[in-house]
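The aim of this short unit is practical: by the end, you should be able to scan a pair of folded records and say something sensible about each. We start with the first protein, listed as its amino acid sequence and then its structure tokens.
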Amino acid sequence: MSPLRRFIDKGPAARMVETPANDTLRPGLVDRLFSWLFSGVAGPRLVAVCGLAAFVAVLSVGKIFDDGDTYWHLATGDWILRHRAIPTTDPFSYTFAGAPWQAHEWLSEVLMALVFRAGGWSGLALLFAGAVGATALIVAAYLRRWLAPGPLMLALGFALACGAPSLLARPHLLALPILAAWVAGLIVAREQGGAPPWRLLPLMLVWANLHGSFVLGLALIGPFALEALVENRHRLWAALRDWGLFSVAALALALVTPHGIEGLIFPLEVTGMTSLPIIVEWRSADFGKLSVFEIALLEVLFLCLWRGVQVPVVRLLLLLGLLHMALQHIRHQATFALVAALLLAQPLARAKSRPLEPEPRAPNDRRAVAFVAVALGLVVIGLSAERLASTTTRVDGVNSPISALAAVPPDLARRPVFNEYGFGGYLIFKGVRPYVDGRADMYGDAFMHLYSRLTRPDAAGLKAELEAREVDWTILQPTNPAVGVLDELPGWRRLHADRFAVVHSRINRGASGFAPGAGGIAKPSPSSSPAAAPPAD
């Protein structure tokens, strides 16, 4: 058996005495590399490799900007920095100008805006690549307690790949490392037979201001607390006190946001919207064609059935609940995959022939961790410097109609527009007031259903809406059925068309008395709005 095979098969808890008696050939370069990575103080090196690989992969793929919401998050962060306040009414659209709206992800948006000001699109790419890399580090650090290097990398790879459709430059990605650290902390607390350490609590304070997924973090305390109560009947009151105090403290910190109790209710209200299926990421999982998520599910089922994996009943119910969320909404697949990898690591390891325990820390582990941390930091700094030194230029994309908007005369761009849902963020970023954008929670079910009906299309309804809103131009994707209606609509003509966007304009425009910024909302000046920022760094 080659060293490579032994290192992949040998788990950190399966301590077998190895002899080189059967090794007749001298190890090759690949075997030596795997030997260096996976033997001795392999843990820190392996964890560092996993984090660095995730960081580089996100930078290399370059898909994190394939979402229109990135633009309006940047615009919101810029608005907060300029006004030194968090908006309570809509400052961007003309359809809902002045309507109540709260930026629940304000901290993420401020961070995004600051990084964008300092490093442009390259800096923003580094920020989100760093978030994914940190998530991989945290998950790998826990998985190495139970899994061999080969299974560890396979589990981590599938967990990250399942969330690939959600690896977009938006606040949820900045909250992902906190989710991983929070879940790992709860699991380790249960392994050690105590309550979660209070040093986890500051994570909740940050999480609640970063993204609405903090509600899941609060909910996850319940199953682990119940498990602790069931398994500690002899010291029931002590367990109830410890977990109860932690839960109350976490809830109190979750309320320390500009929105208070409303911030806690907001994520629940969003999940109850009936118009969510209009948005792709809120649709149910589609098994009509093979996906990474389906492959990962089948792999887990195969391993669990083959190995006879036994998952504690409370954690099994938790997994089933998360699986329901992932099947119901695509956007929850990343969360399910990461939490499932953490929850299943110990049961998978214990499914072997002998009982296993977590890997003890080697005497020289601390020195190895410090060395690897410094080495990893230097590599990341080098990659970041190289990325910042290069110019990242945004080009036309499915949610970035750069050429199409550039073809619109400035005086026309200031007039009411009927736009593609995915284009709303870019219009806001460029200082154009959209008809609709990614803030579906603000627009509400009635408006979102109306927009969906108009673009099916409903020719009569679309014509009536264009007249009622005094719309003078439209910008839609070529595949939008409303494009065909506009081509045939009297008084309208095509102004621009490319493979990403089609612009129509009214032939006799300007008859209405519409004034940009009506309703008490001032139009951002070019010098202080994101519109002044060029597409390139």
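Turning to the second protein, read its sequence before its tokens, just as you did above.
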Amino acid sequence: MTESYPSTSTAPSRRTTLRAAGGGALLLGLGLAGCRSAVSESGASADGAPAGGAGAEPRRGGTLTVAVNTDFTPSLLFAQSGQSLQHRLIYNTLTRYDEGLNPQPELATSWEYAKDGRSISLTLRTGVTFHDGRPFTADDVIFAVKNLQNPLRAAQLRATAAAVTGFEKRGDHQLVLKLSHPVNNLFDLFEFMIITDPGSVESAVTGKKLNGTGPFRLTEWSPGSGLSLTRNESYWQPGRPYLDGVELRVVPQADALLSSLRTGQSQLSFSVPGKNLAVVAATPELAISEYSTGGGAVYLGVNTTVAPLNDKTVRQALAWAIDRERILKQVLGGYGLASATPWPKSSPAFTEAGRTHYTHNPGKARELLRSAGHTRLDLPLLHINLPGDTAVAEAVQYDLKQIGVHVTLRPTDPATAQKNLISQNMPGLWTMSHGFAQVQPSTLAVSAYPFNEAKNTSKYRSAAYTKVVREAWTTSADGARANTLRQRITDTLLDEAFIIDLAIRGAVQVSARKLHGVTLNKFSYLNLDNAYLAG
């Protein structure tokens, strides 16, 4: 396969060891995936193999129960959110990244970019069928792209999909995508975009029928309780999956979720609050693993149309007021990286100067507020009504009170919060988590709802911001020019402070030690192709 445009950089290894478990909480909205696998604090790899020794031989059979703290939301099927975990169980994508940003085959087996970056030729996998038996063809890829272009769909990578303006079929398994202009994040789209059945897509977004090519078939969705999946016996990968089925069970209460893991009712979860991880670490049957390259970030969002938040001096005051290190230590249990910018260390956009641009300086924050004519502000702050999210909101509330900004917390259910984020219907302040900084940096500013240059949740608009983002998006991802453009985006984010990043955070996985082979993709899609339960 040839990829003459754009080139992709190889990121450092994304495997790190989890530090001793402490207080804190895993946030629902976090962009979970930042790596293919993780390493547990006990020295066991995230696939369950003991350090220094071979893992058990794969064993066929058994049903895996995954404890989640929020239910599947069908209307968000084509968006990345805290409800995206099951996507890769039912569907496939065209490609997947390895531990760096190097695309690997999935439903596309090879590809070749035109030298001018204005088209890409795809060879598609043969012998693939949907769960209803219909063969997968180039028409399904065409539909998938057009589906994301549909403004009625909630989907972050719509701008990248919209750059595809033509399709040339060369048989059922050869396809050329023609672009209106070069983009350097096309493989982000290919990993994000699930391949759905055109004939049943409207049933999919209501949860009635999810017809994909993935390793598991949907047998039942019980709203409020979870999803039941069974093995796809016609899966294109020979001998996979090993598991007979998967149950995603909704357990919103932290204590009940922990109990389900400790008693063996559940064998996997990414939703255990940090304050409970010490208990997990003391449970011999469970392992803790961290996807620690920064697949997501905790942030404070600011609605720039709400006075006096339309004044960037006030927004900068908020940024100086927050004690990021305390939030990292006390709320997130020390897992992650305190940061004023959205970029993980693995990103080519990361700089130490950007990460530490805003430190905890309440005196400077009060001075900025006074210079803007304020000594006290009263503002609402929306947050998701789950334990980890509430802890972050309360920490922000405390810090802002110290500079005379009094916030009233508005706990909101996860689905409503996500819909408010998408529809730009947020109050003056909100705390959530975002992803999209773990892939090509341009994707964050053209696709993530909080940062989208054309239409972001903060309602921040700037011709200069749009110009630099568009140029960064359409320029090769490597070289001095790319670095300059990424720095200009970072400088804008820090100066305008419409999104105030607090900490970079990956997923914390709690699993039964008998569970092997679990991975996540860059967009939080759970991959269980090679997962199995040892005897």
